Structure prediction request, 318 residues.
Amino acid sequence: MSKVKCLIAGGAGFIGSHLCETLLAQDLEVICLDNFITGNRKNVEPMINNPLFHLVEGDVTKPLDKTSQSLISGVQFIYHLASPASPGQYQKYPAETLLANSLGTFNLLEIAKANGAKFLYASSSEVYGNPQQHPQRESYWGNVNPIGVRSCYDEGKRFGEAMVMAYVRKDDLDARIVRIFNTYGPRMDKDDGRVVSNFTVQALSGMPITVYGDGSQTRSFCYVDDLVSGFLILMENEKARGEVFNLGNPEEHTILEFAKFIKQLTESSSEIKFTDLPEDDPTRRQPDITRIKQILGWMPKVSLEEGLKQTIAYFRSL
Ligand code: NAD
Ligand code: UDP
Prediction:
C-alpha cells in the first residue's frame, strides 16, 4: 500500500528538519524541498538513508523539474516553511525572503490545489511588527514599518498569509496559517545571529554575551518539540481549516534576564556586554495562546530550563 506523502518546503532548516524526523517516525513518506539558502545538509543527514525520505534540492519560487514533479504527485500534506528566518539572514537575503513568502507560497498553494492536499503556512509573530497590543492575539492587525529593515520578512509573511486566505476563500483549500513565536532547540544555526544561538555560543566559549540595548525588550521562547506537536495538531484538526493560530510559549522574559539564565545554565564566566539596539527591534513580544488552547487543546510542555539544557548540549557537541 502506498504511504501518505508529505512535502516539507524548507525541510533542511532548523524547524523543518525536526518536522521531517517526526513525520518519518509516524511512517509517512517525506519529501524535503530546500534550496539550502539558510538550511544545512547536516540537519537532514540522519534521515538520508531512510527509504521514506526524499531530498529535493530546489527553490519554491521556481518551477520544479519533471522528476521532482512526479515525486510530489499525489502529495496529501504540504508544510511551507521555506524562508530565511533570523533577522541577520533575512536582511542578508531580503528579495529572496519576499519571494519565498509570496511567489513561493503561490507555487506551493497551486500544488496543494492540484493534488487536493492540506496546507500549513509558517507565518510569524513578526506580522504584528512592534506590537502596540500585549500580549498579541490573532485578532490584532499589527504595527509594521513597511519600509524598515525588517519589512522584507514582516511584509513577506503578511503577503503570504493574504495569499493563503485567497485560496481558502476562492478555492475552499484546506489550509491553515500558524504564527510562530521565537522558537529554539538543537540544530539552530550557530551563526545566524539569533539570541538563543548567540548567547549560548558566547557563554560556552567565554566570549562576552552581547545584549542589544539595555536588554529590557522581551521575548517568549518555545522549544522546537512543542512547536512540531502544534503543527501536527493544526494539520489534523478540522477546526484549524481556514484559520490562523498563534503558536508559541507565553512565558515572557527580558533579554537581560535571558542572558543571565544562559550564563547560569552554562556555568559561564562570560561578561554581559551592552551594545547598540538594532533598528526596529520589537520592544515586547508574547503570544496569547488562548485560541489554540481552547479550540485545539494544544499547550507547550517543555520548560525553558529543560529546553535550554537540550540546546546547550547540542551547541557543546558541535
Ligand atoms: P531556517 O532558516 O533554519 O529554515 C528555513 C529553510 O528554508 C532553510 O533550510 C532554507 O534553506 C529553506 N529555504 C529558504 N528559502 C527557500 C526557497 N526559496 N526554496 C526552498 N527552500 C528555501 O529557519 P527556521 O527557524 O527553521 O524557520 C522555518 C520557518 O518558520 C520559516 O518560514 C520561518 O519564517 C518560520 N518562523 C520561524 C521562527 C523561529 O523562531 N525559528 C519564528 C517565526 C517563524
Ligand atoms: N539580541 C541580543 N543579542 C544578540 C542577539 C539578539 O540582545 O546577540 C536581542 C534582539 O535585539 C532581540 C531579541 O534578542 O530583541 C531576539 O532577537 P532574535 O534575533 O533572536 O529574534 P527576533 O525576535 O528579534 O526576531
In short: Residues 9-10, 12-16, 33-39, 59-61, 81-85, 100, 104, 122, 124, 180, 182-183 surround nicotinamide-adenine-dinucleotide (ligand 1) (CB under 6 Å). The first strand starts at residue 5 and ends at 9. The chain has a mean pLDDT of 98.
